[in-house]
Design brief:
The chain has 346 residues and is an alpha/beta fold. The protein has helices at 11-20, 24-27, 31-35, 72-88, 99-106, 129-143, 164-177, 189-199, 207-213, 249-253, 291-301, 317-329, and strands at 2-6, 40-48, 54-61, 93-96, 114-115, 118-119, 125-126, 155-159, 181-185, 203-204, 216-219, 238-242, 258-262, 265-268, 288-290, 332-335, 341-342. The strands form four sheets. A six-stranded parallel β-sheet has the order 10-9-8-11-12-13, sandwiched between helices. Bound molecules: NADPH dihydro-nicotinamide-adenine-dinucleotide phosphate.
């Protein structure tokens, strides 16, 4: 059985969803009420792979909302309680979706293996970041040529280059795709220098410098809502892969010649009878989902019950190959610029 731990995109959206589900006692509550609300297993589902194999899974809402990010202890409790519930339900492999994997890493939840009487078994959980990194890399490779961008001559900026997903995308683009030049963007300088040394290349630039030069921009950092981008300073054409969360780039950069694609999203080959992706505001919520969620399904399809994506900067090209091949085999496609699924060739 696979599991997905997720959350609503905002407090308002969470209250609406709770009302729809009939959780009236909490739907009308204020943020303090929500802070003490336990996680809920809101949906069970069955999924059949393109190979014909059927697996069952469950969606657990952590009852976390982004407005709680500044409440350190609450955020930590929300993620740990949701993991405890997943384990108690006997779920073999559960993906930590949305902010939950970032909370796990940034708040060092590895130190909190004991939740009440439960000892969390880490091998039951995955961040899903390997599949996300593979999907974003393939989205670059599939979509840049559609805009006439030759990646072997192009400059690709990775914003969030030193992160778990960003560093894996850099590894893939430099050694597998052979992009002409990587432009590396993050705030802390030492990890950027370390990444540059590991890659044997790439240029460290500020965000503004990188945006002015890049033919392709991969966003894998949760950027502040207040960030403003001057569209006039961007190259045209420019492919922007919005891999961060929340996905809010199109409103910031919409202009002629700038093409924004939702990054790290996959589409399944047939409808899944679930409602859980409606809260994630997918265009086709019956089929589309975050790649990290799909990773838990893929690991269950493959009978690979292990914390496949775990810790920071551990994603290897070999792991990306494995999860990418499984993704294609079981019927997932990456999104392309038209919002249509694109057949991927591994
Ligand atoms: P990490 O925390 O590992 O990495 C974040 C990266 O962004 C770091 O390089 C960090 O470096 C950089 N960064 C953060 N803030 C800024 C800023 N203001 N300006 C420039 N760089 C910045 O995160 P992950 O790799 O785990 O996740 C990255 C994003 O991908 C998140 O937004 C996450 O929500 C999203 N995601 C999407 C998924 C999907 O399925 N589509 C799945 C999982 C995650 P520094 O601190 O030095 O600036």
């Amino acid at each position: 059985m696979f599991g997905l731990i997720g959350h609503s995109t905002s407090f308002d959206a969470a209250r609406r969803k709770a009302s729809d589900l009939g959780f009236d006692h909490i739907a009308g509550g204020d943020l303090d009420v929500w802070c003490s609300a336990p996680p809920q297993l809101v949906e069970n589902v069955e999924v059949t792979s393109a190979t014909g194999k059927t697996i069952s899974g469950a969606y657990i809402d952590s009852c976390f909302v982004p407005e709680m990010l500044s409440r350190f202890k609450t955020a930590r409790r929300k993620v740990l309680n949701a993991m405890e519930l997943a384990q108690k339900k006997g779920i073999n492999i559960t993906a930590l979706g949305g902010f939950t994997s970032i909370i796990f890493e940034n708040f060092n939840l590895l130190q909190h293996q004991h939740v009440r009487s439960t000892t969390l078994e880490w091998e039951r959980f995955t961040t899903g970041n390997t599949h996300t990194a593979w999907v974003i890399s393939r989205q670059v490779e599939n979509n840049a040529p559609l805009l006439g961008i030759d990646l072997t001559k192009a400059k690709v900026a990775v914003v969030g280059a030193t992160g778990d997903i960003g560093s894996a995308v850099c590894r893939w683009l430099s050694s597998r795709t052979g992009v002409a030049e990587l432009l590396l963007v993050a705030r802390q300088q030492q990890p950027l220098k370390d990444l540059q040394a590991e890659l044997g290349g790439g240029r460290v630039l500020t965000l503004d410098e990188a945006l002015a030069e890049a033919d392709v921009v991969v966003w894998v950092a949760s950027m502040p809502r207040t960030l403003e981008i001057d569209s006039a300073s961007l190259r045209k054409p420019c492919l922007m892969i919005d891999g961060g969360y929340p996905k809010n780039l199109d409103a910031k950069v919409a202009s002629e010649g700038v093409h924004v694609l939702k990054g790290g999203i996959v589409e399944f080959g047939s409808d899944i009878g679930w409602t859980m992706m409606e809260i994630a505001e997918m265009e086709k919520p019956q089929r589309q989902m975050f790649a990290c969620f799909a990773e838990a399904m893929l690991l269950e399809f493959e009978g690979c019950h292990t914390n496949f994506s775990w810790g920071r900067n551990n994603i290897t090209l070999e792991k990306m190959d494995f999860i990418g091949a499984a993704s294609v085999r079981h019927g997932f496609s990456t999104l392309n610029l038209q919002g249509q699924p694109q057949a991927v060739v591994v």
